[in-house]
Amino acid sequence: MSGGKRGPASVAKGESSTVSWKLVRTMKNFSNQLASLLSRAGIFVGAWMATAAYAVNDLPGGPAVNQLNLHPAATKIAEEQQWLHWFMLIICTVIFVAVFGVMFYSIFKHRKSLGHKPATFHESVKVEIAWTVVPFIIVILMALPATKAVVASKDTSNADLTIKATGYQWKWGYDYIKGEGEGIGFISSLDEKQRAMSDSGKPEPTDDYLLKVDNPMVVPVGKKNPHHHHLQRCDSLVCRQLVWYQARCHPWFCA
Questions:
Q1: What is the secondary structure of 113-144 as a DSSP string?
Q2: What angle do CA 97, 102, 130 make, to 5 degrees?
Q3: 160 close to 175: Cβ distance less than 8 angstroms
Q4: Kind of pairing, strands 161-168 and 171-178?
Q5: Cα–Cα distance measured from residue 137 to residue 143, given in angstroms and rounded to the nearest whole number
Q6: Helix then strand then coil, % of the chain, to nearest 5
Q7: CA nearest 173: which of 118, 146, 213?
Q8: Cβ distance 126 to 205 under 8 Å?
Q9: Are strands 161-168 and 237-245 parallel, antiparallel or unpaired?
Q10: 8 A C-beta contact, residue 149 and residue 84
């Protein structure tokens, strides 16, 4: 009868059609997501190849191409700072791996699907003492060498040359306060050619892009004093820098 209810075969056919449609829609969504992912990967590879086409060379003394670490140290205090940097990084990495390793292991090993039930206790004096004392000891061990490096960097006695570096917006001001060149002061700005390259939006590949200035800071060379190992050395000169800021914080580093 045409007006009767649908039989089991019709119902099964309808359900099969619905399942097939859901499967097709799922596959379309998956293919769209895969296409989007591949397109993003293509854009990334294209950008990387474009960057590689404009490869530049390392600058003497840094920075270097694809540099991840600090510049090579040229002074005793810079060596201590770099050692301190890696010392702290290793400690933080070990703590990170240990804490998250234990956490994820506990979550995976004691999950509900294996039949584990949550414990009923809500405090443990031993655990609280442990997670208070252990971090305290770690902080003390980290603070001892850090304090030594900070105190050493503050020791600027018996400097041969004192330069005041003032950071303005997009420029630096230098004043030679004590030593050779005493009384000299000038402003150092970005080189005009590099500024024009930046404004054009299509800079030519160059090793010192946005690093070259019109009036670089210079110091005398050829004067050595091995006893002043706690001070900054600029080209073998024991040099003290006084860094000031007028507009915003600017990085200034002399290894």
A1: GGT---------HHHHHHHHHHHHHHHHHHHH
A2: 95
A3: no
A4: antiparallel
A5: 10
A6: 50, 15, 40
A7: 213
A8: no
A9: parallel
A10: yes
Assessment of whether the complete model's pTM goes beyond 0.90: no
Distance CA 147, CA 152 (A): 8
Which two three-digit tokens encode residue 245? 């800021």
**For the chain, first and last CA: distance in Å?**
95
Structure tokens at 33: 């997501």
CA distances from 198 to 3, 195, 251 (A): 79, 5, 20
Q: Say yes or no to pLDDT of 109 above 80.
A: yes
Which has the higher per-residue pLDDT, 57 or 51? 57
How much is the CA Rg of the chain, to the nearest whole Å? 32
In the three-class reduction of DSSP (H, G, I as helix; E, B as strand; rest coil), residue 185 is classed as strand
The position carrying tokens 């140290």 is 73
Mean pLDDT within 41-49: 56
> Does the pLDDT value for residue 12 go beyond 50?
no
Q: Which of 187, 198, 194, 185 is nearest to 212 (CA)?
A: 194
Domain boundaries, the chain: 76-111+124-154, 161-245
**Is pLDDT of 118 > 90?**
no
